[in-house]
Amino acid sequence: MILSTFFFSTGLEKIALGRVGVLLLAGGQGTRLGVDYPKGMYNVGLPSQKTLYQIQAERIRRLEEMAAQRFNGIQGNGIAWYIMTSEHTKEPTLEFFAKHNYFGLKKENLVVFEQGMLPCFTFDGKIILDSKSKIAKSPDGNGGLYRALREKKILDDVERRGIEYLHVYCVDNILVKLADPIFMGYAIDKGADCAAKTVEKSQPEEAVGVVCRVDGKYQVVEYSEITLETAEKRNQDGRLTFSAGNICNHFFTTSFLRDIIDNQEHSLKHHIAKKKIPTVDELGNRFTPKAPNGIKMEKFVFDVFQFSKKFVVWDVVREEEFSPLKNADGAAKDTPTSARHDLYSLHERYLRAAGGIFIDKSNTIIPPLTNGVNGTNGHEANNNDIEKCGLKRPEVIICEISPLVSYAGEGLAELVAGKKLQQPFLLRANEEH
Questions:
Q1: Edge-to-edge, what's the strand order for the sheet holding 294-298?
Q2: Are strands 425-427 and 286-287 parallel, antiparallel or unpaired?
Q3: Is 426 strand, coil or helix?
Q4: Which tens digit of pLDDT belongs to each residue from 238-290?
Q5: Which residues are within 8 A (CB) of 122 and not within 5 positions of it... i.e. 6 or more apart?
Q6: Residues in the chain, pLDDT under 70
Q7: Residue ranges of domains in the chain
């Protein structure tokens, strides 16, 4: 706890000084979600009806506010937010932020830029046509970031602003802590030039890569590249040997990125992804195949870990920081429903820790979902355990805390301690009423 407080203060001071920026990887459209617009514009179905972009923008605003309050003698320029889009998502993203007045952020602190595109190929190496007169192309992967940082002069802008540290993350994690002061402070304190947040893999087959060391160098080995036998290896305590699940949540120093784009980017290898790529038939009619018909070439953002001189890992609790939104409802996991429920559960824990009391419509207290009901050991249980004690509770309590009110559970006691809260419960900032 003492160390976390120290790291938090270190990270927050750098934010106050304007030394921290955030960089969002947002090149994908919400195809698997069933929408044809950027995933960041997706309304997850929360009581507030906020989109992923709005939630993240407001977390940045709250951090800026916290930094200004803690270090009120420091006059920084706020947190610069860089958003890497693709050919298909750049203009909609720009229009969306302009329409919503940048969600209260400084317009000059939002920098939207486009990653590169690469041709798509058939399995025998021929270029695929998107139409009679157009080659099929796809974004060059989140590792295309480094090429874009150079060609779009983005790193030049980062350096011009005096930013020394960047937090890089993916758009689809509803629980992401942008520029998390604890993570940033930890990496800074350790003198790291590169760092990664990880979660413990839930099972050997979980579709996340693992952060590990290969031949003395750190890297992420993708789940598709690990044999089942290796993935199932366990230590004597029963935990997976390769358990550090990569969640695309990274720290980089600006100087490290400068070395990457000037000296290393050209050596990064392309990875092959087999995909269903829309194309044309012999008559020129466009169609989407039912099975993979070609490959997309892409680089991965984590491929630069190998060049780090001081790499550190910060392992986090999945339920607090990782809930990706990838698929439409009806899929087995990573859906809007699972994302909402994970956010509700986190916010319920925040509110209970602050002294809030949840009640149902009959004014009966709803117990927390923990063994022994009173939460003495903190392990999650199921509804059956609670009902044995003569109590009932809904599967999930619908509650949402605006990021403008609290970044990670702080400052809630004065608002909810000893108060009865009935679901659906939405805690808004004054400006939102």
A1: 121-122, 294-298, 271-275
A2: unpaired
A3: strand
A4: 899 899 999 999 999 999 999 999 999 999 989 888 888 999 988 888 998 98
A5: 128, 293, 294, 295
A6: 1-3, 370-392
A7: 2-117+126-272+299-321, 336-432
The encoded tokens of residue 268 equal 């990064």
Amino acid at 364: T
Q: Which CATH architecture has domain 336-432?
A: Ribbon (2.10)
How do 217-221 and 244-253 pair as beta strands? unpaired
User: Strand, coil or helix: what is 431?
Assistant: helix
Task: Return the exposure string of 344-381: e unless at least 16 CB atoms fall within 10 Å of the residue's CB, then b.
Answer: bbbbbbbbbebebebeeeeeeebbbbbeebeeeeeeee
* Beta strand extents in 36-149 (DSSP E only): 80-85, 110-114, 117-119, 121-122, 129-131, 134-135, 137-139
What integer pLDDT is reported at residue 395 of this predicted model?
80
Which H or E run contains 258? helix 254-259
State the DSSP code for 340: H
Q: Under CATH, domain 2-117+126-272+299-321 is a member of which superfamily?
A: Spore Coat Polysaccharide Biosynthesis Protein SpsA; Chain A (3.90.550.10)
Cα angle 252-253-255, degrees, rounded to a multiple of 5: 130
pLDDT at 387: 47
Sequence-ordered strand ranges (E) for 156-222: 165-170, 194-200, 210-214, 217-221
Residues for the chain: how many in total? 433
Query: What pLDDT sits at residue 138?
Result: 87
The DSSP-derived string for 39-53 is GGG-B---TT--BHH
CB 369 within 8 A of CB 386: yes
**Which two structure tokens, joined as six digits, stand for 427?**
């805690």
The predicted pLDDT at position 207 comes to 85
Residue 30 has what pLDDT? 76
What pLDDT is recorded for position 256?
98
Strand partners, 199: 245
Which of 88, 190, 186, 84 has the alpha carbon at shortest distance from 145? Answer: 84
